From TrEMBL:
Signal peptide as annotated in the record: 1-21
InterPro entries from the UniProt entry: EF-hand-dom_pair
Organism: Alexandrium andersonii
Keywords: Signal
UniProt protein name: Calmodulin
Domain of life: Eukaryota
Amino acid sequence: LTVMNMLIGVICEVVSSVAVAEKELATATFVRDKMRALFDEFGALDDDEISRDEFLVVLQNPKAIQVLTEAGLDVEALVDQAEALFVSEQIDGKGERTVNFTEFVEMVLSMRNSCTATVKDVIALRKFTRTVISQTSDQLARIESHLEREAGSRRGIE
């Protein structure tokens, strides 16, 4: 009797785990299909790449808001985090940073309210912070050198 109860417990745990995995897969498929349809509707997936501006335009659509909300996403937080989503090294013909659609869906799904932060997320945040600091330092160095050249040329005029 005890062994049978243990087996029933194990079977229930396996069924529960499979149900969670299936629900996760169904949610991912739902979001991917709906977002692809919305981006196609706006003509934003011509090259399977999404820019930040294209993403923000789609997020103004009530259908997109509904799809993302049904998937457990906070749309306002997505808008606020749009800059972080598009830190890719890929740049399209207009000079905008882009993200592959598959990567985009994975990033969006990882930002659901039900997801908890992991060590991987902290490492990604650290990498992002270092990238931004590096870019800011480079810009500051260019500005300083430009100001020094301007100051030197003005001294030469006086």
